[in-house]
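Schema walk-through. Below, the input block comes first and the output block second. Nothing else is stored per chain. Lengths vary across the set, and this one has 154 residues.
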Amino acid sequence: MPEKDFTSPPPPRNDGPLYQLRLFFTALQFFTRLPIPRWVGFQPHWLQHATRYFPLVGWIVAWACALVYLLAVQFWPQMVAVLLSTAAGIWLTGAFHEDGFADVCDGLGGAVSRERALEIMRDSRLGSYGVIGIVALLLAKLAVLQALLPLQVL
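--- output ---
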């Protein structure tokens, strides 16, 4: 596998605010399914310059999930609101974190050596440890959120 070049040039600069906006949209398109303007483009090496916006993207996803919860809890029981907000987060991120967690579960559960674990984690297929891990993770998340008072969920 070729080594990654982390010395690549940053995204093209037009001016200060536009450059920062491009970096923000680069982070947003990497972590979510939200549409971004076409003019932004994408090059993998831009991500190293966009890391300053990763927390902001996390806040956007969190607030979107909170909004779904707040709207849903007005009409349905708390468990339904928790399920809908969790589903919204999974859809919004394209199951980014769940997929990574499943890869770790597969790698750590199905390997005896470090090299084999890393090989399993790079494999795109989902194994039984990954499925069990995702189910356990989601059940734990739903149980904890359901156990909280409605306003504590936020």
